[in-house]
Design a protein that fits this description.
Strand order of the largest sheet: 1-2-4-3-5
Shape: globular
Largest sheet: 5 strands, mixed
Distance between the termini: 27 Å
Mean pLDDT: 92
Low-confidence stretches: none
Length: about 160
């Protein structure tokens, strides 16, 4: 992986391990479709989802909330003070569905290889949980969870 794929922000070692494990397992290029966002990019992302009707807002006539109230400001795509590492990415891989990629992520994080490697880097078991959002052709993957968490996107 190149640092430019992460917009110049060094990914957390847990993300790097999972990405490399996926690359080694799939043996096919993995495309990082989104990583660190500035607040402006984060707003633009959600305005795009609003225009596509993927989130329901007053602006697109599908909901009763303003777009700014629909934006998750705690997103792990946004940098936080005290933790300069990238904590979330979106990725896709030709020939894989979102569900297929999700299944591989959970295979990785449940492997002894992952647990041992992360323990050697000083992480406790309670720091190894991930969040995976599954779309039709992509997944969102993040770290810093209190438990493994899954959700789906309708697209």
């Amino acid at each position: 992986f190149w640092l430019s794929e992460f917009k110049g922000v060094e990914p957390d070692p847990r993300l790097i391990f999972i990405l490399q494990w996926l690359r080694d397992t799939i043996a096919w290029p993995i495309t990082i479709t989104d990583s660190t966002r500035t607040p402006r990019e984060h707003i633009a992302t959600y305005k795009g989802l609003e225009l596509d009707g993927k989130i329901k807002t007053k602006g697109n006539g599908l909901g009763d909330r303003d777009i700014l109230d629909c934006i998750p400001w705690g997103s792990r795509h946004l940098p936080i003070f005290g933790n300069p590492s990238l904590r979330a990415i979106d990725l896709a891989c030709t020939g894989y569905t979102g569900k297929g990629l999700r299944d591989l992520v959970f295979e990785c994080i449940n492997s002894n290889e992952y647990k041992i490697a992360m323990e050697c880097k000083g992480y406790r078991v309670s720091e190894l949980y991930v969040g995976v959002g599954t779309g039709n052709t992509f997944i969102h993957l993040d770290i810093d969870r209190k438990q493994n968490t899954e959700w789906g996107y309708g697209y």
